[in-house]
Amino acid sequence: MKKKTAELISWDAHLDKKYGKPGTIKRTAFEANAQAFIIGELIKIERERAHLTQEQMAEKTGTKKSYISRVENGKADIQLSTLYKLVEQGLNKKLELVIR
Question: What is the dotted CATH code of the domain comprising 11-90?
Answer without folding.
Answer: 1.10.260.40
